[in-house]
């Protein structure tokens, strides 16, 4: 569906002279590529779900797909900004009525696509909680359990809807008020917002890919569970995100008593998002 609407908007943009419509069409072209990345990412993860060469499974491939899509979003922002500046400097004649009709069609499609992906995302979260991936009701906020690959696809559709709205607004302003410059100006505004979405997605996916998780509330939960007896001390802790809302724990614990790693594991595993444990226990005789 995205490819079909993309082709219609690109052809119409050339025929009717609308930069906003043309940019929207090429914008959708990059999103068609992003959807391809999304599909390949899911297929890759499914194919390698039990591959022993992946130490913790291929869970991070979702974040990698989201990161790639974020780079595409950034490219879209640069393209739209460049085309908008070019059109500001060199205005062209626009067939407003025909261009608005095509832009309205594109907007309707984008609303439909956003509804599909938004419904899929909410259904995914419902299954996640029903299946106790998160467990024990320990919400951590900040979208920790969002499928970043699906979120990237959803943002691409929202960006398409935004550029369609801007295109229609620009065409209306040009038709009724003679503001031909508006066609390019709204393109620039759309580029800024799309760039912001790309930066947010890069930040969220890079947190997963670079294992920057130690400021996560999960770390505080692990520490609290280990040190709840008033004697044990957590002296070294590493968390690795190994899937959507799933973590591996590597920890060193010092204690005066003769507790075993299995005892500490039983304490920690009440937080069901923790799925893999590597615990070392050191016994201390001094005060």
Quick structural gist:
By secondary structure, this protein is mainly alpha-helical.
Topology:
Blueprint: H1 2-16, H2 19-47, H3 61-89, H4 96-130, H5 148-177, H6 182-209, H7 217-226, E1 233-243, E2 246-255, H8 261-268, E3 274-283
Parallel strand pairs: 2-3
Antiparallel strand pairs: 1-2
Helix pairs in contact: 1-2, 1-4, 2-3, 2-5, 3-5, 3-6, 4-5, 5-6
Describe this structure in words.
The protein is mainly alpha-helical. Helices cover 64% and strands 11% of the residues. The chain has helices at residues 2-16, 19-47, 61-89, 96-130, 148-177, 182-209, 217-226, 261-268, and strands spanning 233-243, 246-255, 274-283. The chain has a three-stranded mixed beta sheet, covered by helices on one side. β1 (233-243) and β2 form a beta hairpin. α1 packs antiparallel against α2 (19-47) and α2 packs antiparallel against α5 (148-177). The model is unreliable at 128-145 (pLDDT under 50).
Helix tally equals 8
Query: Which consecutive residue ranges, at least 5 long each, have pLDDT under 50?
Result: 128-145
CA-based shape: elongated
Instruction: Output mean pLDDT.
Output: 79
The rounded distance between the terminal residues' Cα atoms is 69 Å
In which range does the helix fraction lie? 55-70%
What proportion strand? Answer: 5-15%
Kindly report the spatial arrangement of strands forming the biggest sheet: 1-2-3
Helix-and-strand structural type? mainly alpha
Tell me the radius of gyration.
25 Å
Topology order in helix (H) and strand (E) letters = HHHHHHHEEHE
Strand runs, count: 3
Largest beta-sheet characterization:
3 strands, mixed
């Amino acid at each position: 569906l995205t490819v079909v609407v993309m082709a219609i908007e690109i052809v119409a943009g050339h025929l009717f002279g609308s930069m906003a419509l043309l940019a929207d069409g090429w914008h959708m072209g990059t999103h068609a590529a992003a959807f391809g990345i999304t599909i390949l990412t899911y297929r890759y993860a499914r194919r390698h779900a039990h591959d022993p060469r992946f130490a913790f499974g291929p869970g991070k491939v979702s974040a990698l797909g989201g990161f790639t899509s974020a780079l595409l979003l950034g490219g879209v922002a640069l393209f739209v900004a460049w085309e908008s500046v070019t059109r500001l400097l060199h205005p062209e004649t626009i067939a407003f009525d025909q261009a608005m009709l095509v832009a309205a069609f594109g907007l309707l499609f984008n609303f439909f696509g956003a509804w599909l992906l938004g419904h899929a995302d909410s259904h995914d979260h419902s299954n996640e909680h029903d299946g106790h991936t998160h467990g024990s009701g320990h919400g951590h906020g900040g979208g920790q359990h969002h499928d970043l690959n699906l979120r990237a696809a959803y943002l691409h559709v929202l960006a398409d809807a935004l550029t369609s709205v801007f295109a229609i607004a620009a065409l209306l302003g040009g038709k009724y008020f003679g503001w031909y410059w508006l066609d390019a100006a709204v393109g620039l505004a759309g580029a800024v917002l799309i760039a912001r979405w790309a930066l947010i997605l890069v930040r969220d996916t890079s947190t997963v890919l670079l294992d920057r998780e130690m400021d996560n509330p999960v770390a505080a939960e692990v520490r609290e569970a280990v040190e709840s007896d008033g004697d044990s001390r957590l002296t070294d802790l590493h968390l690795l995100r190994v899937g959507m809302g799933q973590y591996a724990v590597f920890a060193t614990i010092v204690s005066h008593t003769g507790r075993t790693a299995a005892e500490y594991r039983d304490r920690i595993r009440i937080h069901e998002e923790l799925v893999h444990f590597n615990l070392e226990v050191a016994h201390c005789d001094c005060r």
